[in-house]
Amino acid sequence: MRKIKCALIGSGNIGTDLMFKLLRSEVLEPVWMVGIDPNSDGLKRAKEKGLKVTHEGVDGLLPHVEEDCIQIAFDATSAYVHAENSRKLNELGVFMVDLTPAAIGPLCVPPVNLGDLAKATPMNVNMISCAGQATIPIVSAVGAVQTVEYAEIIASLSSKSIGPGTRANLDEFTFTTSNAIEKVGGAKKGKALAIINPADPPMIMRNTIYCEVDGEPDREAITKSVKEMIAQVQRYVPGYKLVNGPDFDGNRVAVFMEVAGLGDYLPTYAGNLDIMTAAAARTAEMFAERILDGSMELKKLEPAQ
Amino acid sequence: MTHEKAKSGMEGLKVKLHDMSLRDGMHAKREQIPVEMMVKIAKGLDAAGVPYMQVTHGAGLGGNSIQHGRALASNAEYISAVAEVVKQATISVLLIPGLGTMKELEEAFECGARSVHVATHCTEADTSPQHIAFARKLGMDASGFLMMSHLNSAEGLTEQALLMESYGANTVYVTDSAGAMLTHEVSHAISMMRDALKPETEIGFHGHHNLGLGIANSIAAIGAGATRIDASLAGLGAGAGNAPIEVLAAVCDRMEIETGSDTFALMDLAEDVVVPFMDHVVRADREALTLGFAGVYSTFLLPAKRAAERFGIPARDILVELGRKKMIGGQEDMIQDTAMTMARERGLLKESA
């Protein structure tokens, strides 16, 4: 079966973990990995796996896009360079999956809105953040039963799983995730908190989701909706697990989740990597299937005047 | 034979007191300090000559949340109200990256805050560069605040302090959030930092009184080179509270360490205003002592007591378990989670995930 050829931009934790997932895909084939440090572990791993690599950033990839038929690119660099990367690749007709907090394209949480996004034909979709991927499905599941007036999520991440880019730009993570809780999760107001915990052995990614609903919560319906949603996420992130809850206290619903990873690149504690890369891979697969069956056509975007 | 008393060698040192009653004290009041009370206490501190006072939600900027409790007023309202009445003191705020953002720091600045504690866990200083740099850009006094310092070695703390200094912090704190540090550990860490940091970078110490060492540790810090000490009226703060500022001022007076503050005025403010206002006597009770003993974030005290009541697990057991799991400041959600898991294991909570 024909596969859609992909490029990975960024050779850090996320890019490298994503490569391992794409190597297993039935419709995606990773062909290029782009870095900026010739000695990065990610580029070394990519070379071992038979990918072409460049350490000259996205400009090192551009001349090869057409000859290697790259149709989808994943950006796991930083919010500051993403817009430029996206513009250059869109001009060559490459569809962009954005794993930075830049969020210039529509926000995507697969079990919540991938179906809707597929009806449109964006050239760039944004994966929000690991915390967003881990918590927005729950907010949306509660919201499917009752209006969520306010949703607050707390993501606890192991120190070893957080790379230098995220660390230096925590505000972007906070803003992008808070915004997505409203835009995709459907909460009237959203707030995101992140905690980086250095415990050794590292703690598995934990997420707590608080929703304040309009009126007395319908306990039975909310519990059912949340559990159904968890099963949906488990289809692409098997380590997504309910630890406690849903707990009801007044109009407040609390759900305590854990995300264990598959251990593709970093060990299983780094569920935050997995949920991000698995969501990105799933999103790309859906668009790849549409490209393959001819229902979506990639057009070169005219350079802006 | 002479009868002269021994000297400490600290005579003549100058120390800046930084009051925490209106920030850490918020924890002890479940974030329920009315604006008028903040104004009253701030006026008293200002008149007593305390040079710095911190004013925000207990968890700082962005703190109003389910996770950290909702205060009676917004940070902007508290800061503006206090800024209107203080004459000499500098108003500071707390900012924990991951919770507070630069947007909120700018707002605090516009309301009158001129100093900030940018707080990270004691091994995660590299989550603070954008906030420290932004504070300095605004012209604020910026301290790097290494929380839960008992979980890092003196060498490790020094490394982290150097990072914060490199981002632009003009002060770096050893922050004993769990009130778990012993006196010789405070001295050792601060001496090492003093040797490594630029001479113009100040060192601060923020203590909690969970092991009864709030004052002793503060004095040890001064002896090792700290020039800024956080403290609060009657110790109003999380856990067994901070170092009581009126006691610290009195000890400094006796030791001839200059604080520039009026000790009697602080004693009056503590006794006449703050103590009658307390919801509970802030002291090293069984649970607060457990915090210091097990090395648990002091702010966990009251939420752990609430979870204990709701799920039927003794608060001390919950706190010890949180310490074992190495939970850190900001992970208040894990208190209920841990209590629920323990309750299920003990057959007190049916039904699970």
TrEMBL record, chain A:
Asked whether the UniProt record includes Oxidoreductase among its keywords, one would answer yes
Q: Can you tell me which residues bind NAD(+)? A: 11-14, 161-169, 272
Keywords of this protein's UniProt record, alphabetized? Aromatic hydrocarbons catabolism, NAD, Oxidoreductase
What Gene3D superfamilies does the annotation carry?
Answer: Dihydrodipicolinate Reductase, domain 2 (3.30.360.10), NAD(P)-binding Rossmann-like Domain (3.40.50.720)
The residues covered by the Semialdehyde dehydrogenase NAD-binding domain are: 5-120
Pfam families given in the database record? AcetDehyd-dimer
Show the active-site residues.
130 (acyl-thioester intermediate)
The source's superkingdom equals Bacteria
E.C. no? 1.2.1.10
Q: Which reaction does it catalyse?
A: acetaldehyde + NAD(+) + CoA = acetyl-CoA + NADH + H(+)
Recorded family membership: Belongs to the acetaldehyde dehydrogenase family.
What is this protein's name?
A: Acetaldehyde dehydrogenase
The source organism is Thioclava marina
UniProtKB/TrEMBL annotation, chain B:
List, alphabetically, the InterPro entries matched: 2-IPM_HCS-like (IPR050073), 4OH_2_O-val_aldolase (IPR017629), Aldolase_TIM (IPR013785), DmpG_comm (IPR012425), DRE_TIM_HOA (IPR035685), PYR_CT (IPR000891)
HAMAP family (UniProt xref): HOA
Gene3D superfamilies, per database record:
1.10.8.60, Aldolase class I
Q: Which UniProt keywords apply?
A: Aromatic hydrocarbons catabolism, Lyase, Manganese, Metal-binding
- The UniProt record lists the Pyruvate carboxyltransferase domain at 15-267
- The UniProt site entry described as Transition state stabilizer is assigned to 23
Q: Reaction(s) catalyzed by this protein?
A: (S)-4-hydroxy-2-oxopentanoate = acetaldehyde + pyruvate
Which SUPFAM superfamilies does the record associate with it? Aldolase, post-HMGL domain-like
Spell out the protein name for this chain: 4-hydroxy-2-oxovalerate aldolase
Q: Which domain of life is it from?
A: Bacteria
**CDD domains reported in the protein's UniProt record:** DRE_TIM_HOA
Q: Which Pfam families match?
A: DmpG_comm, HMGL-like
